[in-house]
């Protein structure tokens, strides 16, 4: 089975003789080739995050990036004297990205070898390739969504939020309440479908089946009367998180079948997945239907299994399962729902079936 | 020298008695998990208090808790055991740990 290389989610740049020509300490006024600048700007527009790993004095190097008008394009700069594999690892961890979605570009073969040795999944490129990156398939996401274009901003806001969270002296739950989190669950509009498709491609930890639904398939299902494609977006006082989750539900008279549930890694720590399951449980209880969920174990989605099971889903032998032929490698989890209280940490608005699908606050 | 090496290898594969957490009493198990919870949530938790009452617990936290309990006490929590009721309070978690390590002595 040949699997396509996943799209790069973050490119980490070396500075000396890679991003700019020359060595900052020796040459002082280093310059950036127009072709390289174009790559930085265009990757940003495509939603590929960019970071820095450089052996330099942090303040000097960052000041030069600011003079060059490029500093704003980079998140999580790692400028210092430690091993580059360590900076790459730190960046991946802070972003909560698998190392297979990280790329690293550096002019020195030894640096690339050091990174490749410790982090074999990271894709390494020599500096000569910088100007040609835009033409590579791994740097060309199939669709560029509204959220992709502002991804860097959303991550920036996320880091600020994390910083406040670390400094917050009270209980974590109180901190979450202080964020004024709002979750909006709604039927997917056309322009949101591409973002939803992208989510199923990008999320691996919080994807219950690992199945990818294409843009066309999701559009068809959104029009199908028996299916609901729901998009989840969130915001807080730091700004919008954009579309952060998707649910695909097939509705039958006795059961709602969750075929897809994926949430972005950016909102996992807010309990977005748990809140979503809780809302769905409440809605199903009101509709007097059972919930059935597909779960297919992957290397990275145990968190999703915990989320389902902690929401009360279990292996069961209910008669409502008779109409679900088991798919190879997929477990079927079942829940007989009871009414749930809304969470204390965020406001949730969702279509109210009692009010012809008009949006209402879950209260 | 070689003999003791062999023995310690055998011990580590059977968990006992080399596992320093093997004979922990209930209170010690609860203290360990309690310390983890306190570090994570910046709040102290009584043994019978429902961690999940507020609905604020994230899946990330839930998973970290499961992984912590598994790795600290050398158990695997799977299938029906992976249920909220087993992780709801410090008391229910210590009961789960003891049951899974006891090799099913209540069977």
Automatic annotation (TrEMBL), chain A:
Region annotated Disordered, chain positions: 341-363
SUPFAM superfamilies recorded: HAD-like
InterPro entries with a match to the protein in the record: FkbH_domain, HAD-like_sf, HAD_sf, HAD_SF_ppase_IIIC
NCBIfam families documented for this protein: FkbH, HAD-SF-IIIC
Protein name: Haloacid dehalogenase
UniProtKB/TrEMBL annotation, chain B:
Name of protein: Acyl carrier protein
Region Disordered, annotated ranges: 1-22
Domain of life assignment: Bacteria
Polar residues: compositionally biased ranges: 1-15
């Amino acid at each position: 089975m040949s699997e396509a290389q996943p799209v790069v989610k973050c490119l980490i740049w070396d500075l000396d003789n890679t991003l700019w020509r020359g060595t900052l300490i020796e040459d002082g006024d280093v310059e950036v080739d127009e072709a390289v600048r174009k790559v930085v700007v265009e990757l940003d527009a495509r939603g590929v995050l960019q970071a820095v790993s450089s052996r330099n004095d942090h303040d000097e190097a960052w000041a030069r990036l600011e003079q060059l008008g490029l500093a704003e394009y980079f998140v999580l700069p790692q400028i210092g004297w430690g091993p580059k594999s360590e900076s790459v690892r730190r960046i991946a961890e802070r972003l909560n990205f698998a190392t297979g979605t990280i790329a690293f570009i550096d002019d020195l073969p030894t640096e690339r070898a050091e990174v490749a040795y410790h982090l074999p999944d990271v894709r390494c490129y020599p500096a000569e390739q910088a100007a040609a990156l835009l033409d590579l398939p791994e740097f060309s996401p199939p669709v560029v969504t509204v959220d992709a274009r502002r991804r860097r901003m959303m991550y920036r806001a996320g880091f600020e939020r994390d910083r406040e969270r670390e400094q917050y002296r009270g209980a974590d739950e109180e901190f979450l309440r202080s964020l004024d989190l709002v979750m909006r669950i709604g039927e997917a509009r056309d322009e949101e479908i591409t973002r939803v498709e992208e989510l199923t491609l990008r999320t691996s930890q919080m994807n219950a089946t690992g199945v990818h639904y294409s843009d066309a398939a999701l559009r068809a299902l959104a029009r199908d009367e028996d299916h609901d494609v729901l998009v989840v977006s969130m915001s807080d006082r730091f700004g919008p998180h954009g579309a952060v989750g998707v649910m695909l539900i097939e509705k039958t008279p006795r059961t709602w079948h969750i075929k897809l549930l994926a949430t972005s890694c950016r909102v996992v720590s807010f309990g977005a997945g748990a809140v979503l399951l809780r809302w769905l449980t409440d809605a199903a209880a009101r509709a007097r239907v059972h919930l059935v969920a597909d779960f297919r174990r992957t290397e990275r989605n145990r968190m999703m299994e915990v989320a389902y099971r902690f929401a009360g889903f279990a292996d069961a032998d209910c008669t409502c399962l008779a109409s679900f032929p088991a798919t190879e490698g997929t477990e079927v989890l079942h829940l007989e729902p009871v009414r749930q209280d809304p969470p204390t940490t965020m406001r949730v608005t969702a279509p109210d079936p009692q009010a012809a699908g008009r949006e209402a606050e879950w209260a | 020298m070689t003999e003791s090496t062999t023995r310690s290898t055998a011990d580590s594969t059977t968990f006992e008695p080399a596992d320093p957490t093997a004979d922990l009493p209930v209170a010690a198990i609860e203290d360990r998990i309690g310390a983890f919870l306190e570090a994570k949530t910046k709040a102290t938790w009584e043994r019978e208090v429902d961690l999940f009452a507020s609905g604020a617990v994230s899946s990330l936290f839930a998973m970290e808790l499961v992984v912590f309990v598994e790795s600290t006490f050398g158990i695997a929590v799977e299938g029906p055991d992976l249920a909220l009721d087993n992780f709801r309070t410090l008391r229910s978690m210590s009961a789960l740990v003891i049951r899974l390590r006891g090799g099913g002595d209540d069977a």
